[in-house]
């Protein structure tokens, strides 16, 4: 049979002197505090700011917690004689976004059970975040034995909450039993009054029926003198507080559930309104863009129709210029033919008018006349050539413009 463990309750005292941030780490500018945890129990120092130059913070505060140590034969080999008792120390930063854990460490408190408050043990703890060491924490730890607990592990102080709960349950059961007694008395009282009415009808006195009912039912004269309304009021005064408390306790979860459902409904309504607003904005933007696209399409169609009319007009103008150029070419051919004819006539006249064949004045006049005709023919030819060149240049420009407009229309 295994030997039961001995439980000893110690009160530990931890004096937090200060901490120093290690090189390479960041020294926060916000307030800091040291948190000591043992299971669900916690103790925390007041907030203190770290000095940026010395990279250290001074607390100088003493924290205290109660720990239960276990002494068993298996733990006799340890230096303290107790099983391991781990506690946690954490460095907390208090910023605008709340508290944040910067670093922490675990410490076995069993070896400090032999350190009295008059001679505390001073230790330097390394606070880490993951595998990186952040700061050094300087503490002094001592303890004081409070009492030895029974071997069954039941601490009367630990059962205080359970005792209060049990007493509350017992009083509630007593009230229920008292209510049952009152219901029984009420039923008996109703039976007595029914018997009295029957006895009165049969000619029996009311006092005799009350005495018989008291003798048979064991009800005292004072209880017999009470009415049903008095008993009901007494029962209500006794039961109503417990009933109201039970109803309040039962209503708390339902009220919280209703509040939660109302909050969810409000949130869903807000999300629905936001989605509807977004849909309306999207639809309005789509309608606006569609109207803009319709206007641009109508404008492009008008521009295309105008360019088509311009192209038709340019084609007609080019045809007109081509006709004019053909006429100018025909006129130029006629002028050249006329010049050739005049040259032949001049040559014939020169051959006919040999030396001594006519007067020199007549020959001179004839030559001047022929020269004038020749000059006029040459001027007419040059003018027709200029008109033809101008018509060709204008026709080429119109053709280039038409080609550019056709290419622009094909791109659109």
TrEMBL record:
InterPro entries: NT-C2 (IPR019448). It holds the Pfam family NT-C2. Residues 146-161, 186-201, 335-349, 372-386 have a biased composition (Basic and acidic residues). Residues 1-145 form the C2 NT-type domain. Residues 146-168, 185-208, 314-412 are annotated as: Disordered. Coiled coil: none annotated. This is C2 NT-type domain-containing protein.
